[in-house]
């Protein structure tokens, strides 16, 4: 019963992931380097509880492969 609903939710997540709104997860704070990061719900941001900064991670585009070959 609940299985179909879960599949729907997964499909919805996959569709959302294809858009620009996908949130990248940082593993270290870009300011102090600590791993004490928590998602800041509603703001689409992350907060570092070590240096008390809040920030977002945004992908700005794709780059050419550094190897040169396609
Ligand atoms: Zn920090």
UniProtKB/TrEMBL annotation:
InterPro entries: Ribosomal_eL37/eL43, Ribosomal_eL43, Ribosomal_zn-bd. GO terms for molecular function: structural constituent of ribosome. It holds the Pfam family Ribosomal_L37ae. GO terms for biological process: translation. Keywords: Ribonucleoprotein, Ribosomal protein. One of its GO terms (cellular component) is ribonucleoprotein complex. It comes from the Bacteria. Belongs to the eukaryotic ribosomal protein eL43 family. This is Insertion element protein. It comes from Nocardioides oleivorans.
């Amino acid at each position: 019963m609940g299985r179909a609903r879960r599949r729907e939710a997964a499909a919805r997540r996959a569709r959302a992931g294809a858009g620009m709104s996908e949130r990248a997860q940082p593993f270290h704070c870009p300011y102090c380097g600590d791993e004490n990061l928590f998602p800041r719900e509603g703001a689409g941001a992350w907060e570092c509880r070590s240096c008390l900064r809040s920030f977002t991670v945004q992908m700005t585009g794709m780059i050419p492969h550094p190897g040169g070959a396609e």
